[in-house]
Amino acid sequence: MYRKYLSILISGCVLTACTGETTASVTSKTIPAEKITQIEAKVKKLYPNADTKLQHQIVDVAVESLESMVFIKGGAFMMGAFKAPCNPISTDRMDWSPDAKCNTALSNAETGANFMHKVTLSNYSLANHETTYHGFDAFKRAHNLPVVKAENRAKYDLSDEQFKNKATPTKTWQEAKDYCLWLGELTGYPIDLPTEAQWEYAARNRGKHLYYATNNGYIQRKNSHYLVNGRYVDYTKDEWNYGGLFESKDIKQFPPNPLGLYDMTGNVTEWINDWYANDYYQHSPEIDPQGPSTGTRKVMRGWGGDAPFITSRGGEAIVQDKYYPTYGFRCAVQQTTSVK
C-alpha cells in the first residue's frame, strides 16, 4: 500500500462537522491529491451523518480502489478452453504446445467453454486483488446494512482488523455489482464488474495460452501446502474457525501474474458482469462482448476449489441462500485510459 494517514485539520470541514476537530486524511503516491480531495468531499456530501471513523474508512477504500487498478492494454485473443497435453507429468505444471489435443476440464464441454472464438478488447483497468472485508464493511455500514457474518463477529468478539485483508464473501450478484458502482460514484470513474472476456484476457496475461494465472503459469504445492515466495504455507489454517468466517484467505499470499493481478488462480471464485449461457461463446460478438442480454444466472470465473484451469467457467444463481465464503469478486474501470 502507498497510502498513509496524516493527522491534519481539514480547513474545508471535508471530513468533520465543521467543529474544528482534528481528523485524518489519506495520501497516495499514485492518486493526485486533488482527486483525493474530491473523494473526501463526495463522502461528506453522501454520508454527512456517518461518524468520522466510517468516513475515513470509506475514503480509504475509495482511494485504495484506484491505487489497485492495473491498466490493461486491449487486444485480440482466442477466448475459450484451449487444449492441454493428454499425458502431462503433472496438471500443476503444464506447458501449452500447438499439438495439444485433450480437453482441459470435463466441465468445459457442458459450459460451452470449449468453443474457442476470437475476441478483441478495448483498454480497461482491473483491480489487482479481490474485494476485501475492509472494503465491503465500509459499503455495508455506509448503507446502514449489517456487515457479513455480524452474528459470528459478536459471538467470538472479533475485531475488523482480524480479517480485513481476507476476500469478502457474498450472498448475491447484485451486492457485488452495487459495490463496484458505489466505488464509481465515490471516485467519479466508470467502475463496474469486469466482463467475462476481460477477466479471462487478464488472467491469461493478455490472452496467452496459460493454464494458471500465477507468476510462472504453474501451481506449486505439496499436499495441502502451497509454495509462496519460497516457503510452503498451510492453506487449511483457520479455514473453519469462527463459524466459517475465515474460509476465504488473505489476499496477495501468492505472487501475482505477470500483469500484477493476484489470486485469479486460487482463493475465491469471482462474480462477472455477464449473464451466463452455455452456448454464448458460439455467437459472441468479436468486439468487447458483454454477454447475453438476459438470463437467470451470472457467470463466475476463477478457481475457488479443485477446478484447475483458468479457462473453466460456470453460472450461478444471482441470489444464494447464505454468504458463501468462496463467492467473491473484484471490480474494473470501464474506460480506455488509466486512472493513474
Which regions have little confidence, pLDDT < 50, spanning 5+ residues? 1-24, 223-241
Largest sheet: spatial strand order:
3-6-17-8
- Mean pLDDT comes to 86
The SSE string, one letter per element, is: EEHHEEHEEHHEHEHEEEEEEEEE
**What characterizes the major β-sheet?**
4 strands, antiparallel
What do these coordinates show?
With 340 residues, the chain is an alpha+beta fold. The longest helix is centred in the first third of the chain and has 16 residues.
Task: Give the helices and strands, then pairings.
Elements: E1 4-8, E2 23-27, H1 33-46, H2 52-67, E3 69-72, E4 75-79, H3 107-111, E5 117-121, E6 124-127, H4 133-142, H5 150-155, E7 170-172, H6 173-187, E8 191-192, H7 196-203, E9 221-222, E10 225-228, E11 231-234, E12 269-275, E13 297-301, E14 314-317, E15 319-324, E16 327-328, E17 332-333
Parallel strand pairs: 12-16
Antiparallel strand pairs: 1-2, 3-6, 4-5, 6-17, 7-15, 8-17, 9-10, 10-11, 12-13, 13-14
Write a brief structural summary.
This protein has 340 residues and is an alpha+beta fold. It has seven helices and 17 strands. Strand 9 (221-222) and strand 10 form a beta hairpin.
Write a concise keyword list for the protein shown above.
alpha+beta, disordered N terminus, 340 residues, four-stranded mixed beta sheet, four-stranded antiparallel beta sheet
